[in-house]
Amino acid sequence: MNLDELRPLVADGESERLELKRSTAELERGLRTVCGMLNNVVAGHVVFGVNDRGEIVGQAIGDNTIEQIAQRLQTQFEPVPPVGIEQIPVEGGRDAIVLRVGIGGDLFAYEGQTYERVGRTTRRMPQATFQRRILERAHANNRWEMQRADGFMLKDLDTSEIVRTVEEAIRRQRLEDPGTRSSRELLLGLGLIEDRSILNAAVVLFGKPERLRVRFPQCVLRMARFRGVTTAEFIDNRQEIGNAFDLFLRGQRFFRDYLPVAGQIVPDRFERVDRPLYPPEALREALANAICHRDYRDGGGSVSIAIFDDRLEITSTGPLPFDQSVEELTRPHPSRPWNPLIARAFYLRGIIETWGRGTLRIIELAQRAGLPTPEFEATRHSVTVRFRPSDVTAFPADQQLPVVQRRILTALVELGPSSLSRIQSKIGQDVPSRTIQNNLRALREQGLVHLSGSRRDARWSLAPGGNPDEV
Predict the structure, then answer these.
(1) For residue 374, which phi and psi values (nearest 5 degrees)?
(2) Whole-angstrom Cα distance, residue 305 to residue 225?
(3) Is this model's pTM higher than 0.85 or not?
(4) Kind and range of the H or E element at 223?
C-alpha cells in the first residue's frame, strides 16, 4: 500500500473495519482493536499517523518501532494473529503505520482478554459471547456427526439410498458424476467415511432401521393427531425409527393422512376441490430443517409432529445452533448448520437449500397461503415451529375431513358395507390398520359411518340416511 491508496481508505472514516490513531502512543488501544476485528472475523486496518481531522500526518518512526509492534503481536496475542505491518512515507520525513488485519477464523485474546468490535468502538467481549464462540470452535473441530460410528459397517446402511442421493445430486447438477456406484466410494466422496470408518452422519442418513433401533434410538420421528387443542386425548399416535430420508417421507405421509383440507364436495363424485389447511411446501421445509439441524447427541432425542384442531407443531431436540435468537430466524441470516454433513446430503437431494433461507421460506409460503406468520419457539432443550390455520373456527372435523378419513369414505362409497381388512386393501397398505380403525371411530362419532356386527363379522358402512354431499 502507498500513500495514494491509503488516502481513500482513511477518507471513509472509522468503522467496524477501520480504526484511526494519532500515533503509536495509542498502540495499546490499537492492538485491542486488532483483537476485536479478528474476533469479528472481518478483515480491517488500524492506521497510526492520522489526526483528529482525518488528515494523514504520519509520525516520527524510531529504529525499532516496527520491531516492537511485531514483537507484541507475536508475544501478547493468543494465538499469533494474521496481521501485517506496513510503513508508508508521508511528507516531512514522517511515516504512517498500517496494521493489516486478516481473517483468522479463531478466537483471539490480547494480554489474556478477548475483545470485539462494535461499530466504531472496541469493547471487552461479553462472557455469553465468549462461551458461544468457545462452543462454536469446539463444535467445528469435534462435531458428533463427524465421530466414528463404532460397530457399524457398510452392510448396516441402505446402499440403494446412498446411490439414490448421488444420482439425484447429479440430475440436479449439484454433483459431478463420480463414475462409480460403489457405496464405499460414494460415501468417501460425500465425506462420510474417515480412515475406513463410517461416520455418525452416514448412519443418520442411511442406517437400516433394525440397527438404528439398538444403537441410534434418537433417529426417531414421533407423530400424533390429538383430539381438540390439548394432548389429553389422541386420535393416532405413532413412533417410527429410520434414517433421515425415510423419516422425512413418513412425516409427509402423516401430513397427508391427517391434515384437514378446505373445500367443497363435487356433486355426484364424493370428492372435494381441496386447498390444504397448511401449505405442504412449508411443512416439508420445516420438517427437513428439524431433521438436519437437531442435536443428535441425546440418545433420547427426536423430531416430533403434533397436529391439533387449532395448530400444527414440529419440534426437534436441541437448542438453536450457535446461540441464535428466534428473532434472527425471521430475517436474513447466514447459514450455519449444526450438522453440515447431514444438511449437505439433504441439499444434494434437492430437499433444502444452503443459504439460510429455510425459515424465511417457511414464513413466505405460509403468508402466501393466507396463514398467520408461523411461530418459532426455542428453549435450552428444543426448537418448535408452530403453524396456525387462517380461520380456526373452520377446523372442526364436521367441516373439514382429514385426507385419510376422506379416503375411507370414498372406499365405502365404492365397496358398500366392508370389513376392516377390505377397506385397508382398497385404501392401500401405506395407511396402517390401526390408523384406519382410529379414523373409523372418529367418523362414527361424527355420524358419518355405521358399524354392524362384531369381531370377524364386523362391517363398516356409510351411516343410514347419510348424504355424502352434506359432509
Answers:
(1) -55, 150
(2) 8
(3) no
(4) strand 220-226
Q: Which of 53, 56, 70 is nearest to 23 (CA)?
A: 56
Q: What is the pLDDT of residues 162-193, one digit of tens each?
A: 999 999 999 999 999 999 999 999 999 999 99
Spatial distance between the Cα atoms of 365 and 369, rounded to a whole number of angstroms: 6
Q: Which residues pair with 20 in a beta bridge?
A: 47
* Nearest CA-CA partner of 361 in 299, 278, 470, 284: 284
Rounded Cα distance, 236 and 409, in Å: 18
Comparing CA positions, the residue from 126, 169, 170, 308 lying closest to residue 235 is: 308
What are φ and ψ of residue 282, in 5° steps?
-65, -40
Looking up cell 437431494 gives 349
Q: Which three cell numbers stand for residue 165?
A: 442421493
DSSP state for residue 113 in the 8-state scheme: B
Q: Which grid cell sits at 142? A: 469435534
Question: What are the phi and psi torsion angles at 432 (to 5°)?
Answer: -60, 150
Closest CA to 187 of 145, 216, 159: 159
Among residues 117, 50, 41, 128, the alpha carbon closest in space to that of 81 is found at 41
pLDDT, tens digit, 9 for 90 and up, residues 303-348: 999 999 889 999 999 988 776 788 888 888 767 788 999 999 999 9
Question: Which amino acid belongs to residue 372?
Answer: P
Q: Environment class of residue 408 by beta-carbon count within 10 Å: exposed (0-12), middle (13-18) or buried (19+)?
A: buried
Q: What is the maximum alpha-carbon separation in the chain? A: 109
Cα gap 27→25, rounded to integer Å: 6
For the chain, the C-alpha Rg in angstroms (whole number) is 31
Is the N-terminal amide bond of 417 cis, ω within 30° of 0?
no
